[in-house]
């Protein structure tokens, strides 16, 4: 579900509240009346819009009325937008910005620049779009006017989202929400939330807060924000369908469809028709689903909504296959592919090759079926590789950003120390005669303090370096596992594996920046890692995580990533070779007093001696963990220790390995 919400489109031209007042005259009253007509009818009647534009141009031949002239330029551009004349719309928004600047009307300039950015965004000219959004932000910084900021940040977020820079898009939307909340601008606040919701829905569905979603829907109902209401109904209906509440989903899609029809939003009608078609298909009501699709295609073609046409043809091909109408399935798949190739949206249309192959095969066209199947496989691999590349690029960017932050912090600290030394030297020079003894004492204490600080800083830096070593080591092992998993399983399962891996990588990167994380975060990371390994090893082992009742997952904090390397050693080198018929890993966390936590990892593997000699392997992760413990103790002066031993029975047989870690624990309030 990818629809974007532009502030100037949803607000409309007529909703702008002028910030300047001028004395009214007969001429200005006539201009205001013509502007009101152009605002209300400029999107519905092209001939009347042209007539109103000509009349207003005649009025301004002799009239000096800056507010009316700028309103005219904006309404004129908005009318061109409504009739899909994007170049003309962009031109008149830019002209409006230039005129507003010449008159030093900064609120108008920012508004025009923001709308120009939105027009270039619709034209997919992302460089030009970002240029105008940045110019609008610059105007705000220079003048202090912030009325247009929420919509500008929404526009920037959409650009980032189109470019695949999802974290930057989320930041822009959150910034828009924050500013609009402070301005009590509910419409912009909801628009920003909706755009943020599109990212969550497409990429992080588990992060959607349903309570927040329904609360926002009720807010829109209360304040009659009908366009936003029908959009939110798409998401609530989708959530209901995913949880098996099909009747609820159907009612919400139909409610959204009715509202979209009443307010004349064809694009929103199409999204609800897509949802109704998919829901009908799941319920086995194939003919009803095809009727929804046919209506959706009529509307999408009328409004030139190409992405929606691609999705609808894809649905039509799938349903036609299910009911045995192979000719229609082939026809729909071919239309989907043609439109998809014209827009480059292969992440959507590549599936149509699979439907095309199945349709041709059912019709006996085996050669054509094989050709389509080969294209499907090739495109599937391209899409999967691009997704993997994007995820790895994001990880690399975060690594580089962290390194730069550390370098900046280090340089800032060095500059501060140098400045402090210079101040001390000046003080000592001026007070040397009368304070020589005190100066010597202060100098001695200062040197001692500097040595202690540097010693502690070096230990902290060593600790950060060791954590940063763990991340590439862990990523290397995980990517090797992913490669193996992809060779053994299909692209669909590998895609699910990559999604789980991406979530785990995000947790690892976030935790690598801090000294302590909550117990709940550590447990959640371990669970994600073990679930990932369960997928990899085909559920060939079981695990349990036990937490002492005296520990609180939110308030008790411990250093991150100490248990994972030993779990990895167990899985890679010992677990599947032991005497036990059941492969099992157990992690226990118990409090030891108020300042320590014991973390115990036990497995049913081959044991230490066999594990080491059979593999000829010494775990780099274990070595780094030992060094981390030493560096952590040096930097924080808090207790930490480790013991690794075999588990044996009464007969002296090795039943596995037991690792006991004692780590410091802090009681903090998580943000």
TrEMBL record:
<keyword id="KW-1133">Transmembrane helix</keyword>
<feature type="signal peptide">
    <location>
        <begin position="1"/>
        <end position="23"/>
    </location>
</feature>
<dbReference type="InterPro" id="IPR036890">
    <property type="entry name" value="HATPase_C_sf"/>
</dbReference>
<dbReference type="GO" id="GO:0000155">
    <property type="term" value="F:phosphorelay sensor kinase activity"/>
</dbReference>
<dbReference type="InterPro" id="IPR011990">
    <property type="entry name" value="TPR-like_helical_dom_sf"/>
</dbReference>
<keyword id="KW-0812">Transmembrane</keyword>
<dbReference type="Pfam" id="PF06580">
    <property type="entry name" value="His_kinase"/>
</dbReference>
<dbReference type="InterPro" id="IPR019734">
    <property type="entry name" value="TPR_rpt"/>
</dbReference>
<keyword id="KW-0472">Membrane</keyword>
<keyword id="KW-0418">Kinase</keyword>
<dbReference type="GO" id="GO:0016020">
    <property type="term" value="C:membrane"/>
</dbReference>
<keyword id="KW-0808">Transferase</keyword>
<feature type="transmembrane region" description="Helical">
    <location>
        <begin position="427"/>
        <end position="447"/>
    </location>
</feature>
<dbReference type="InterPro" id="IPR050640">
    <property type="entry name" value="Bact_2-comp_sensor_kinase"/>
</dbReference>
<dbReference type="InterPro" id="IPR010559">
    <property type="entry name" value="Sig_transdc_His_kin_internal"/>
</dbReference>
<protein>
    <submittedName>
        <fullName>Histidine kinase</fullName>
    </submittedName>
</protein>
<feature type="repeat" description="TPR">
    <location>
        <begin position="110"/>
        <end position="143"/>
    </location>
</feature>
<feature type="domain" description="Signal transduction histidine kinase internal region">
    <location>
        <begin position="462"/>
        <end position="541"/>
    </location>
</feature>
<feature type="repeat" description="TPR">
    <location>
        <begin position="150"/>
        <end position="183"/>
    </location>
</feature>
<keyword id="KW-0732">Signal</keyword>
<keyword id="KW-0802">TPR repeat</keyword>
């Amino acid at each position: 579900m990818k629809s974007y919400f532009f502030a100037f489109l949803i607000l409309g031209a007529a909703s702008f509240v002028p910030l300047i007042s001028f004395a009214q005259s007969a001429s200005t009253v006539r201009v205001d009346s013509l502007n009101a007509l152009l605002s209300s009818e400029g999107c519905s009647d092209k001939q009347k819009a042209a007539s109103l534009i000509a009349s207003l141009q005649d009025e301004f031949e002799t009239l000096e009325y800056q507010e009316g002239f700028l309103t005219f330029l904006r309404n004129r551009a908005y009318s061109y937008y409504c009739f899909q004349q994007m170049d003309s719309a962009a031109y008149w928004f830019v002209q409006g910005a230039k005129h507003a600047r010449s008159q030093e009307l900064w609120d108008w300039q920012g508004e025009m620049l923001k709308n120009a950015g939105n027009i270039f965004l619709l034209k997919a000219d992302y460089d030009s779009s970002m240029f105008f959004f940045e110019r609008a932000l610059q105007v705000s910084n220079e003048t202090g006017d912030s009325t247009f900021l929420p919509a500008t940040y929404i526009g920037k977020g959409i650009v980032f989202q189109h470019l695949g820079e999802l974290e930057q898009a989320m930041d822009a939307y959150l910034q828009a929400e924050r500013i609009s909340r402070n301005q009590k601008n509910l419409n912009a606040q909801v628009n920003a939330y909706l755009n943020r919701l599109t990212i969550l829905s497409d990429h992080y569905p588990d992060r959607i807060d349903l309570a927040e979603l329904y609360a926002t829907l009720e807010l829109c109902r209360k304040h009659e924000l009908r366009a936003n209401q029908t959009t939110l109904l798409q998401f609530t209906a989708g959530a209901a369908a995913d949880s098996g509440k099909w009747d609820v989903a159907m009612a919400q899609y139909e409610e959204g469809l009715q509202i979209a029809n009443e307010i004349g939003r064809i694009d929103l009608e199409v999204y609800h028709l897509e949802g109704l078609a998919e829901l009908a298909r799941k319920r086995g009501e194939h003919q009803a689903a095809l009727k929804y699709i046919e209506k959706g295609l009529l509307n999408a073609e009328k409004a030139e909504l190409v992405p929606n046409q691609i999705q609808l043809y894809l649905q039509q091909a799938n349903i036609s296959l299910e009911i045995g109408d192979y000719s229609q399935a082939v026809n729909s798949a071919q239309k989907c592919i043609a439109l998809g190739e014209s827009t480059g949206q292969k992440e959507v249309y590549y599936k149509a090759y699979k439907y095309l192959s199945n349709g041709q095969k059912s019709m006996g066209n085996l050669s054509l079926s094989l050709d389509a199947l080969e294209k499907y496989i090739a495109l599937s691999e391209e899409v999967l590789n691009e997704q993997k590349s994007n995820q790895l690029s994001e990880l690399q960017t975060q690594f580089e950003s962290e390194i730069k932050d550390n370098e900046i912090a280090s340089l800032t600290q060095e500059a501060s120390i140098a400045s402090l030394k210079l101040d001390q030297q000046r003080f000592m020079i001026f007070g040397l005669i009368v304070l020589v003894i005190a100066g010597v004492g202060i100098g001695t204490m200062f040197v001692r303090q500097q040595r202690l600080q540097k010693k502690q800083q070096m230990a902290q830096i060593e600790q950060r370096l060791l954590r940063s070593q763990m991340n590439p080591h862990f990523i290397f092992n995980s990517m090797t596992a992913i490669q193996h998993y992809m060779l053994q399983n299909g692209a669909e399962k590998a895609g699910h594996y990559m999604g789980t891996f991406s979530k785990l990588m995000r947790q690892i990167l976030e935790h690598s920046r801090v000294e302590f994380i909550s117990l709940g975060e550590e447990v959640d990371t371990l669970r994600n890692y073990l679930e990932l390994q369960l997928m990899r090893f085909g559920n060939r082992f079981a695990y349990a995580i036990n937490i002492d009742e005296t520990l609180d997952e939110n308030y008790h904090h411990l250093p991150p990533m100490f248990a994972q390397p030993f779990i990895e050693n167990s899985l890679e080198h010992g677990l599947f070779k032991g005497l036990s018929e059941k492969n099992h890993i157990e992690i226990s966390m118990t409090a030891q007093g108020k300042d320590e936590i014991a973390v115990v990892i036990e497995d049913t593997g081959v044991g230490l001696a066999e594990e080491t000699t059979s593999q000829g392997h010494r775990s780099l992760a274990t070595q780094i963990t030992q060094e981390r413990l030493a560096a952590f103790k040096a930097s924080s002066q808090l207790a930490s220790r480790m013991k690794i031993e075999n588990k044996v029975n009464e007969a002296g047989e090795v039943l596995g390995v037991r690792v006991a870690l004692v780590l410091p624990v802090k009681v903090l309030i998580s943000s």
